[in-house]
Design brief:
By secondary structure, this protein is mainly alpha-helical. The chain is built from 5 helices and 4 strands; from the N terminus they run E-H-H-E-E-E-H-H-H.
Length: 170
């Protein structure tokens, strides 16, 4: 992994999660999707373009080594490239959060306690609790609107297979 870094603006909880799992600056696994996205979007720095420095709300990420794109030369990101990397990180974060929280077997424990435990396990401060609960709830609600129950036993209306079918009388 190179020592050359790029800086991506992310929500605080995703920055904390990344630093917890991938270090600071973040070094993603060699064959990961995020590294593929980084390699795809890094370009040669245009003449006259200043080298960027880390700003408030950004995460430092090491550019992965590549035989075809030496990070020494390919270390520039356009705005769409930065957005694509942020989306790739968000996808991995959301997938882990959703899979971990949806697999919970303890229905009698309040969801907020389960989320707080998940946050502690993943290096996210409790100041971000509202954001995590909101993100998780939005995902569940989006599925619920499509008739898919992913709440796994929490107190929600019956959806999906448990719904009674309406029979049209002729």
């Amino acid at each position: 992994m190179s020592n050359i870094q790029i800086y991506i603006k992310l929500p605080e909880y995703e920055r904390q999660w990344c630093r917890h799992h991938f270090g600071e600056p973040c070094t993603f696994p060699n064959q990961s999707n995020i590294n593929s996205v980084i390699r795809y979007f890094t370009k040669k720095r245009p003449e006259g373009a200043e080298v960027e420095t880390k700003k408030e709300g950004e995460l430092a990420i090491c550019i992965p080594d590549s035989q075809s794109k030496d990070p020494y030369y390919y270390n520039y990101l356009t705005a769409p490239g930065k957005k694509a990397i942020a989306e790739a990180i968000n996808d991995i974060f959301t997938k882990q959060m959703f899979e971990d929280l949806s697999a919970i077997q303890f229905r009698a424990i309040p969801l907020t306690l389960i989320i707080r435990d998940w946050m502690a396990t993943n290096g996210i401060s409790y100041e971000q609790e509202h954001n995590i609960i909101q993100k998780y709830t939005r995902i569940k609600d989006a599925y619920r609107k499509c008739g898919v129950n992913i709440s796994r036993g929490y107190k929600h209306e019956d959806i999906g297979m448990n719904r009674r079918k309406r029979v049209n009388k002729r």
